[in-house]
Every structure is written in structure tokens, then in C-alpha cells.
Design brief:
Blueprint: E1 6-14, E2 19-26, E3 34-37, E4 55-61, E5 66-67, E6 69-73, E7 76-79, E8 86-93, E9 102-104, E10 108-111, H1 113-116, E11 119-120, E12 128-133, E13 142-145, E14 162-166, H2 169-172, E15 177-180, E16 183-189, E17 192-199, H3 207-225, E18 241-248, E19 253-256, E20 260-266, H4 280-294, H5 321-338, H6 344-359, H7 369-374, H8 387-390, H9 396-412, H10 419-431, H11 447-455, H12 460-466, H13 475-481, E21 484-490, E22 498-503, E23 506-512, H14 517-521, E24 528-532, E25 535-536, H15 540-548, E26 555-562, E27 565-572, E28 579-585
Helix pairs in contact: 3-4, 4-5, 5-6, 5-9, 6-9, 9-13, 10-11
Bound molecules: zinc ion (ZN).
Residues 291, 295, 325, 328 line the site of zinc ion.
Length: 587
Amino acid sequence: MNNTPLLYRVEAHDPAGHRLKVTLTIADPDPQGQQVSLPAWIPGSYLIRDFSRQIESFTARDAQRTRSVSKVDNHTWHIAPCTGTLTIQYVVYAWDLSVRGAHVDQTHAFFNGTSVFLRVHGQESLPCTVELAPPKGINGWRVYTSLPPAPGRAATGRDGFGRYLAPDYDALIDHPVEMGTGLSVRFSAHGAPHEMVFTDAPADIDLARIAADVQRICEAQIAFFEPRTKRAPFLDSANRYVFMTQVTPSGYGGLEHRASTALMAARKDLPVRGQAQMTDGYRTFLGLVSHEYFHTWHVKRIKPQAFVPYDLTRENLTRLLWVFEGFTSYYDDLFLVRAGVIDEAAYLRLLSKTITQVHATPGRLKQSVAESSFDAWTRYYKQDENSPNALVSYYTKGSLVALGLDLLIRRESEGRKSLDDVMHLLWRRYGRDFYQGRPAGVAEDAMAELILDATGVDTKRFLSRYVDGCADVPLDDLLPLAGFALEWKTAAQPSLGARLRKAGEGVQIAAVLEGSSAHRAGLSALDTIMAIDGLRVDSPAMVEAAVERSRAGATLTFHVFRNDILHVFEVRLLGNTHREAIVHRQP
Ligand code: ZN
């Protein structure tokens, strides 16, 4: 039956109460007493999440009797020394509808191993069997996961319930599981099996169209990294790649794994049968798919040294997220054009939007992308109303750094080399054998040398200005050399410089941009605007209209509540500083 030293049995025993029951059998527990723990965070999402707080009813017993259990720290349990096999049983409360946690009800169950599988200290490198049991009292569910089935013909049934096998703990927590009645579609890309499952999808979702588009993206990326063999990277640890998408009213996000990804998509973004046009929403969904799939190479195999191995008990700090998230954000949209899913004009619109977005963030002049990477755990992942003024995104600015590097390398090498050569060297040096060889990661200071090796181009000055420094990537200078031009448009109307949202009777200020009309007048985040020039406003659009009707230099009287006290602010409107970037091909 169980030939591995560790067996995890998982059952949705109380779907209505959002609970999974886990039984962990340890064949050879530590004679001094066994310690077990849950990860404090999930790789790919850089925030301490304390998954252990969702564990209920923790018990342990050996061949003879119940053993005493005590907590050692927030994540770790100690079980008293025992004789023979140790069996631990616990319940996981699973009601977090995100790509990072676990979510169970009568319609489906989704979980990440980081929420469910205890790490058996001292036995992390041993193989683990996972037994997925059908939910109690519910029929008709199917299992979707990239976990490899256990050896033996009958390990898993046709519905996917049964036994799976992970070679070690690191693999065990890197294959999320979806169970339910979602709509699914399969395709193969360069001969490698892929499966997509959509939970809560519209009944008329156009699976054939989605599969055809995603297949093109997957094939383009596989051929990019392995032009000769066209071997899909995940075949080193799984027999298929699985896209598991939770459909929600307006959700968006993804989390990458070695042979799968968990996605959140908005219902309106997914195409339905009979709808042929490429909408902004569908383009966004395909961009997300492209992004997470690219991570299969870049961050799941090519990794920063700081992640090799992951320390699951604490923050793992690296200054290189601009490489791992920034480059990925550059290549995600680029692969939509390379795969022929969108045309060049659509790509340039996406690029223009990113440039506009980065330049609208005052924080880009205070924080570098290297600092933003290092501080991700306490700043990018813990954003507040001042974040636009204090932070830069290693995703968006990182993607502009990648574009700048790409253009610089093409220029300096007279078109013989590009950022593609950097990716190829990263792949050969760090990624290709990651799960088979002796794993190594990219050192914190390795990029300049690596780019030089890959392309012969010295980028030290570029990196010190735009990665370690806060200067704007000089795309105005670099784009024309590749045949593109960057133009800036400024709206004629003045601007308030505040982000607004509807709140009860008035309009709440979500954020005030530094240096703006709102900032200079003393308006603040969390103020509720009730009236402008004596007229009531009750929607962000009304505030914007009042500002846009005015001329630069005009003064508007704002009545606002701050902590239940009415304040009056005279807001002198400055000329619009918001610039819109437009990239186009040079005539
Ligand atoms: Zn990413």
C-alpha cells in the first residue's frame, strides 16, 4: 500500500464547514520526539502569512497511544517520543478564495500544499505519498493537479482520486490541487500534455478558443528556451502542466509552480462561444497565462541564490525580483505578439500603458527596483495610501529595465545580440538541470557579469543608474534606434492628483500624489469630499468633472470630513502633470 516513509491523506470531510482533514503517517519518527511545521509563507508570494493559524484539532498517536503535543513556535509542533509509526491528524480550515491559500465548499476544493502539508523535520528529502480521498457525501468531483501519480496502474482512478507521489517536501508543496466539477480542456504543446480547468466558469465559455491561444503561447515559450529539442521544462518533475483558474466577478492574479499555476480571472474577461473579437479583458487573461507560464523557467528553475533552498520559516530577501518579476513582465506581453495572439499595434498599446503607469508614480524617484525587490515583504506586499509616493514596482519598472537592456544590447552589439541571449544563458547555467543536477541560484551581484558573458555588452553603468539608482529608463533615446518613437501627451485640463473612491454620501480620497494640487492644498488620504464650490458631490466622476471644467490656476473650495470634523480647503488647481506615453513605429 504505502511504500514511502511519509503518507498524507487528505479528505474534504466537512465541505460545508470549509474543512479538510489530513492524516499524516510517519513510518520512522525522530526517537527524541518529532517536530513538524507549516511554512510561514508560500514561494512566489513574498509575505509572511502564518498558514498554521488555520490548523484545528491537532492530535498525534503511536502504535500504543495518544502522544502529547506542544507548540514550539507559531509554526511548529513537537510530539513526545513514541514507539513505531507516528500518526498525526489535524483539520485545516480552508476559506480563503485566493491563489495562495486553500478554499473548500460543497462545489469544489482548492489547496496549496503550504496550507495543508506539515513539514516533517529531518525528513524533508524523503518521498511523500499523497492520498486524495473523495469528499464526504458528494459525488462527481474530479481531481486536477500536476502531482505525479504514484507508481502502479491503479494508483489513481479515472476521476483522479487516489495516490500521488512527490520526491521530497519541496515538490510536495509545489503542486496545488483542484477538485470539483470545473470545466476543463486539454491540449499538447510540442508534444507535452497541458490541461486547463476553470472553476465557476460561465457555462458557454469558449474552451476551444482559449486552448488554441494558450497552446500558441506555450509552444512559443518552449521553442524560445529549447529551440533544438523543444522539450517542455516541467517534464523533469511531472507528466503534464495544469492551469487551474478560479473565475470570480473581478479577480485577477496568479501564482507560479514548477508544473502548474493557480490563476484568478474575472468572468467578463473570458471569451464565450460566438464571441470572436479580442477584448481588453481576454488580452489581460492571456497576458497572465503567459506571465505564469514563463515563470516555469524563470523563478521556478532559474532562481535567485536567496531561494536555493527556500527557507520557509522566514523572509527570503533578494535584490533581484526586478530580474525575476520584471523580465517576466517584459516577456509576458512580448510572447503574445511572438505567438501571433496579438498584433504589434496592440503590443505597443500595452507597452505605452506600462510606461504611462510607471511615470505616474512619484515613488519611482525615491526607491530603486533593487530596493523595491529587497523590501518586497514589508513594502510592496504591504501597500498603503502613501505607496504611490514611496514605492516603485519591480514588475512594471522592472519590465521597462528589461526593455531598456534589450534595446541597449541590440544597439551595442549592432543587432547581433539581445536580452534573449541573456535568458538563454540564465537557462543553461542555472535552470535546465535545476531539479536534476546540483541546484544553484543567481548570486545577488551576478547580472552585469552574466549579461557581459551572454552578449559581450557592458551594462554596469546602465544597471547602476536604472536598477540600483532611481533614474527613469531612457526609452526616449533607446526606442528610436530600434525603429520606434516615444511621444508624450499632456491633457489640457488641470488635475487634482488624488485617487478617489465612492464612500457613502461622499467621495473618499484613496491616495494623494506628492506635489499635486491636492497635496499642496492639504487634502489627505481618507478625507471624504462632500461638496465642491458649495455643490454636493457623491461620485468620483463628479469630482473629476468639477476639476476638468476649471482652468489651471483656478481655485475650488472643497468641503471635506476628516474624522467627523468638517474642514474647508481652498484647492488651487495646477496644470496637468500627468503625461501619457505613446509608442509607435517610426514612419
Ligand atoms: Zn510573476
